Amino acid sequence: MTKRDRLNADDIAAGLADLPGWSLAEDGLSIEKTYRFKSFVEAFGFMSQSALAAEKLDHHPEWFNVYNRVDVKLTTHTAKGVTALDLALAARMEAAASPACP
Ligand SMILES: C[C@H](O)[C@H](O)[C@H]1CNC2=NC(N)=NC(=O)C2=N1
């Protein structure tokens, strides 16, 4: 089993348990979350950090931004479903969305 193999429903549910606000899309083929920030600049900062994480993972989000809102959908095109890479990118996005407290 590799990171690009499609996960079954149980494995997806287990992964989502560690990702607050993320859920399985209705079609069961992707995971999604809507982020809201204080401003466009904060939203764009989140997207910039997420973009760098995506490049490192060689795994890229589908997303839509309006002002302070970012709708994110993660799926693995090659697997036609959710893989460990989607869960890994979601975890990086969670970190990008909540700056570490000193
Ligand atoms: C060649 C390259 O590794 C692939 O095209 C990668 C790039 N980023 C990707 N991102 C996503 N979300 N799904 C993919 O299948 C995918 N494939």
Describe the structure.
The structure is a single chain. This protein is globular. The model has no long low-confidence stretch (mean pLDDT 96). A hairpin with a 6-residue loop joins β1 and β2. Helices cover 39% and strands 19% of the residues. A four-stranded antiparallel sheet has the order 1-2-4-3, covered by helices on one side. It has one domain (9-96): Gyrase A, domain 2 (2-Layer Sandwich). The longest helix has 18 residues, at 40-57. The chain is α+β, with helices and mostly antiparallel strands and 102 residues long. The ligand C[C@H](O)[C@H](O)[C@H]1CNC2=NC(N)=NC(=O)C2=N1 binds at residues 58-60, 75-78.
Note the topology.
Layout: H1 9-16, E1 23-24, E2 31-36, H2 40-57, E3 62-66, E4 69-74, H3 84-97
Helix pairs in contact: 2-3
Ligand H2B binds next to loops.
